[in-house]
């Protein structure tokens, strides 16, 4: 069996990134580390990839995309738009599905560094600041603060929460509930929650975990509708809002007469296959374009402020409010 770079890393007791740096004479490395890696290469008869070596000193024209769930409608659409923007600029993509697993995310980062990608766009946020600060490739984050040195691109989640609350109040709703997913103050859902609460400080906020199966989610939503008896619900994502609509119809609750519903994301899928759902639309095309523009500036060593870039949201009115 032909030895791989990861086999060398395991034998030498170092990361794949370190092996790549030894091969390409990149960055500071102790003589002891270099000797261990070279000895492991000899022992395994490892031959560095000729294409990779031919790219030494040149751009690989590769960008890594790390996201937590590439089958999710929202992430799938965003990845599609990122790939399209990158291809227009002459870059190919390596798509990494971290599945909310910190070990998997860490391995993907090491793999991307070992393959000397030109940059990374990460929408997966399971690792700490120290992990991301060790990455030498330029990085742009989608939606979360990975590190103080990494720019963040997102929609204006706080404004989205405000707009959702204002829309339901204007429609005459009295008993309004927000259903959130996995929530913390630094998450997109947390910011939507904060915006919503700024308009409706006394409204109930109920967590229905993003980790629940659709069946478990339906059970939780049914409990909310039958026990809390809301006349309006703001769901922090469209798929949850669609489940609310499904359960409401099964309970013979009329939408929007008895229950008004508003979601968040406004993907192409929802806009075309569930046009009846009112939702806060994220500008995915603009998010993708800005993320790529900022990353290319970093790749070209141009100044990019390490700050948040918040793009405006809008309301798709639908027929559920």
UniProtKB/TrEMBL annotation:
Keywords: DNA-binding, Repressor, Transcription, Transcription regulation. GO terms for molecular function: DNA-binding transcription factor activity; transcription cis-regulatory region binding. Residues 3-57 form the HTH lacI-type domain. It holds the Pfam family Peripla_BP_3. PROSITE patterns: HTH_CROC1, HTH_LACI_1, HTH_LACI_2. Residues 5-51 form the HTH cro/C1-type domain. SUPFAM superfamilies: lambda repressor-like DNA-binding domains, Periplasmic binding protein-like I. This is Sucrose operon repressor ScrR, LacI family. It comes from Streptococcus sinensis.
């Amino acid at each position: 069996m032909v030895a791989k770079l990861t086999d060398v890393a395991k034998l030498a007791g170092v990361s794949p990134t370190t092996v790549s740096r030894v091969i390409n004479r990149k960055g500071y490395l102790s003589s002891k580390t270099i000797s261990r890696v070279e000895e492991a290469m000899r022992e395994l008869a490892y031959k560095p990839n000729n294409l990779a070596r031919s790219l030494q000193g040149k751009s690989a024209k590769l960008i890594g995309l790390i996201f937590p769930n590439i089958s999710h409608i929202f992430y799938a659409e965003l990845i599609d738009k990122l790939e399209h923007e990158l291809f227009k600029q002459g870059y190919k993509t390596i798509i990494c599905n971290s599945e909310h697993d910190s070990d998997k995310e860490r391995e993907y980062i090491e793999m991307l560094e070992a393959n000397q990608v030109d940059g990374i766009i990460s929408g997966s946020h399971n690792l700490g600041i120290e992990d991301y600060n060790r990455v030498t490739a330029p990085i742009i984050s989608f939606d979360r603060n990975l590190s103080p040195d990494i720019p963040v691109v997102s929609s204006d989640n706080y404004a989205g929460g405000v707009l959702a609350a204002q829309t339901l109040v204007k429609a005459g709703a009295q008993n309004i509930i927000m259903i959130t997913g996995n929530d913390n103050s630094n998450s997109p859902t947390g910011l939507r929650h904060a915006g919503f609460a700024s308009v409706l400080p006394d409204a109930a906020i109920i967590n229905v975990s993003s980790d629940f199966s659709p069946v478990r989610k339906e059970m939780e939503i049914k409990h909310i509708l039958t026990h809390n008896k809301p006349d309006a619900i703001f769901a922090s994502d469209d798929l949850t809002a669609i489940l609310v609509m499904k359960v409401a119809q099964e309970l013979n609750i009329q939408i929007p007469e008895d229950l008004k519903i508003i979601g968040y994301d406004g993907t192409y899928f929802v806009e075309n296959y569930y046009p009846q759902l009112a939702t806060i639309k994220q500008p995915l095309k603009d998010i993708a374009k800005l993320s790529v523009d900022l990353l290319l500036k970093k790749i070209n060593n141009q100044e990019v402020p390490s700050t948040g870039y918040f793009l405006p949201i809008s309301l798709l009115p639908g027929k559920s409010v």
